[in-house]
Design brief:
The structure is a single chain. By secondary structure, the chain is of the alpha+beta class. The chain has a single domain, classed as OB fold (Dihydrolipoamide Acetyltransferase, E2P), CATH 2.40.50.140. The protein is built from one helix and six strands, in the order ββββββα. It has a five-stranded mixed β-barrel with strand order 1-3-4-6-5. Strand 3 and strand 4 form a beta hairpin.
Length: 120
């Protein structure tokens, strides 16, 4: 099971670009504050995102549902890697009903997966 839920604030403007494949990619940096600990910034990539995905603003609070991916790429002849969250959904927290639905959907899917593993 590879399910990630993040709630945090955008720490830089969304970056939208078209890949060589023709797919649209929107990239975010989401900063998650944890009481009593340092904040962590998580890179998020949303493939084939709706046009409105690039309209989010810096410091806007969002909920991200996705999965963790580590990708490898070459730069200057050196293989490098980056761990990021590949988003399935990104919803502004101000849209409470949609944000709640994203969380409930993720939790239900995780529960189904856990049950299948237990019966396995």
């Amino acid at each position: 099971m590879n399910v990630v839920i993040i709630r945090g604030r955008l720490s830089r403007p969304p970056e939208q670009r078209q890949l060589a494949s023709g797919d649209q990619l929107v990239s975010y940096e989401v900063t998650v504050a944890r009481p009593g600990q340092r904040a962590e910034t998580v890179p998020v990539a949303w493939m084939q995102a709706p046009a409105s995905a690039a309209d989010f603003t810096v410091d806007e609070e969002v909920v991200v549902l996705g999965r963790v991916r580590r990708r490898f790429f070459g730069r200057d002849g050196i293989t490098q890697s980056r761990t990021e969250v590949v988003a399935e959904r990104v919803v502004p927290v101000r849209h409470r009903k949609r944000a709640k639905q994203v969380l409930l959907t993720a939790l239900a899917a995780a529960g189904d997966e856990a049950e299948a593993m237990a019966l396995g």
